[in-house]
Write a structure and sequence with these properties.
Number of strands: 10
Distance between the termini: 41 Å
CATH topology: Rossmann fold
Oligomer: single chain
CATH class: Alpha Beta
Structural class: alpha/beta
Length: 172
């Protein structure tokens, strides 16, 4: 039975690297994957998911109005898909998370989503909130804060490299 997975963490934990490695593992075994990414995220280039360590792969862009179940059905008309990967999953809309759940349940294709859990104020992103509620499997990807402890928040850093806790205090 295929499942919907949500792998989440703070920034700089290697989420995109893990996504690209997992997709590579499928492809190395002769399987086909579909990598989806928000259309507005062009940091690695248009229609590309990239990681800070230099890995990259072609991606299918989507926007907030796209029906992801239908998008996957259209891709299936061109070739089989053994796994769907979603980068920056925090930007999914609520209905898109349900559609990805339907990809797993109705089409029998595993869906692995990677994204942030919360913003710099500790508020859940819409996509993350829905994934935490709907995903069959949740995995926290741990990373280290600049202080050396486990990171649990995303920082907002200005153009001068300065950050503010926006009134939030450390849990230590």
């Amino acid at each position: 039975m295929a499942k919907l997975y949500f792998n989440y963490s703070t920034m700089n934990a290697g989420k995109s690297t893990m996504l690209l490695q997992a997709s590579y593992n499928y492809r190395e075994r002769g399987m086909h994957t579909a990598i989806l990414a928000p259309a507005f995220d062009d940091r690695g280039g248009e229609k590309t998911v990239s990681s800070r360590i230099g890995l990259q792969a072609a991606a299918v862009p989507f926007d907030a109005t796209d029906n992801l179940l239908e998008l996957i059905r259209d891709l299936l008309k061109k070739q089989s898909i053994d796994c769907v990967f979603v980068d920056e999953a925090q930007f999914l809309e609520s209905q898109q998370v349900k559609q990805l759940s339907d990809v797993a349940d109705e089409l029998g294709i595993p869906v692995l989503c990677y994204g942030l859990r919360t913003d710099f104020q500790g508020k859940l992103f819409t996509g993350s909130q829905q994934l935490l509620a709907w995903a069959d499997d949740l995995t926290e990807i741990k990373t280290i804060c600049h202080c050396g402890q486990k990171a649990n928040m995303v920082l907002r850093i200005d153009e001068d490299g300065k950050w503010s806790d926006m009134g939030l205090k450390s849990k230590s």
